[in-house]
Design goal:
The protein is built from two helices and eight strands, in the order ββββββαβαβ. The protein is of the alpha+beta class and 140 residues long. A hairpin with a 2-residue loop joins β4 and β5.
Amino acid sequence: MHGTAISGGGLKGFSPKIGSLQILETTKSTLLLQAKINITNPTDYSANVPFVNINLLSNGTLLGYATAKNITVVPGLNDDILVEALWDPLTPSGKAGVDQGRELLSQYISGNVATSDLLLNEHQLTQLRRVQHYPYTQDT
């Protein structure tokens, strides 16, 4: 898998938080989710982002994808950014994905720290390199 992990570092104040979460559709092995995400932009810069696609990983295992469209990010708090996510650990990662996904959800539901990584795909990085790349890891 090509891309760059958004893991620990540069945007310490970024801190995405899920404001609300809705299950839109399910199958035997997938969930289509819609979330409103709240983030803090610790920089002095604003950006209009027409499309971003992020791979969702846990311990290096691909569990799904998240997509946001037509985002405007301003300095400071940015509320209710609409994101759709496909939780599908089976298709890209097989049994290892199912096992890792189950472990991540179990930790989260139990109230334990469940760490996941966000990975921008190579196409996204090509476009974002013009601005600057900031690593980030999210503990859920």
